[in-house]
Amino acid sequence: MNKERPYIIPFPKIFDPRGSLSFVEGGNHIPFQIARVYWIYDVPAGEARGSHSHIHNKSVIIAVGGSFTVHLSDGKRTESFTLNRPYEGLYVPTGYWRTLDNFSSGSVCMVLASHPYSEDDYIRDYNEFLTACENDDE
Ligand code: TYD
C-alpha cells in the first residue's frame, strides 16, 4: 500500500521589529479541516509523549515554543524530525506510530487535528499497530 508520507509545512511568517507572527487557515495551509487543537506543555525533562497511532485522525504538530523531537514509524522505518521553528509544522498522516521526546525546558507542542478526540481512534499497543501495518500491506 502507498502510504501518505509525513512532511514539513512552511507557514506564513511576518517579521516585524515588534516581533514575529505566523498563522494558519484551515483548508488553506493545512491539508485537512481542523476539528481540534490541543497543546502539550510543562513536560518534565526526560519525559516522552505520544506512543500511539491513529486510525482516522491526521495531525500537524508545531513547536510554537522551544524544541522537541517527533519520531514517526510506519512499522518498518522510523523518521525523526526535530521541531524548533514556530513558522513550520510537521504533517502526520494516519498509519504512523508517533513518539515525542527531547522536550526543551518551557517548550510548547501545539497539535492541529482533523477529528474531535475519540479514544476509539487510537492504537496504543505497538504490536497491534504492527499487525495493522501488515494488514495494510496485503
Ligand atoms: P494522551 O493521548 O495520552 O497524550 P499523548 O499525545 O502524549 O499521547 O492524552 C492524555 C489524556 O488527555 C488522555 O486521558 C486523553 C486526554 N485527551 C483528551 O481528552 N482530548 C484530547 O484532545 C487529547 C489529545 C487527549
Q: Mind explaining what this structure looks like?
A:
By secondary structure, this protein is mainly beta. It is built from 1 helix and 12 strands, in the order ββββββββββββα. It has a 5-stranded antiparallel beta sheet with strand order 1-9-6-11-4, with no helix packed on it. The protein is globular and about 55 Å long. The chain binds thymidine-5'-diphosphate (TYD). Thymidine-5'-diphosphate binds next to strand 4 and strand 5.
In brief:
With 138 residues, this protein is mainly beta. It has one helix at residues 126-137; strands at 7-10, 13-14, 21-22, 36-40, 49-54, 59-65, 68-73, 78-83, 88-92, 97-101, 108-113, 122-123. The chain is globular, with a radius of gyration of 15 Å.
Number of helices: 1
Q: What class do helices, strands and sheet pairing give?
A: mainly beta
Count every beta strand, where a strand is a DSSP E run of 2 or more residues: 12
Oligomer: single chain
| Small molecules (ligands, ions, cofactors) in the structure | thymidine-5'-diphosphate
**Overall morphology:** globular
Largest pleated sheet:
5 strands, antiparallel
Mean pLDDT: 96
Name the helix and strand elements from N-terminus to C-terminus, one letter apiece: EEEEEEEEEEEEH
What is the strand content? 35-45%
Keywords:
single chain, 138 residues, mainly beta, five-stranded antiparallel β-sheet, 12 strands, globular, binds thymidine-5'-diphosphate
What's the SSE blueprint?
Blueprint: E1 7-10, E2 13-14, E3 21-22, E4 36-40, E5 49-54, E6 59-65, E7 68-73, E8 78-83, E9 88-92, E10 97-101, E11 108-113, E12 122-123, H1 126-137
Bound molecules: thymidine-5'-diphosphate (TYD).
Thymidine-5'-diphosphate binds near residues 36, 49, 50, 52 and 117.
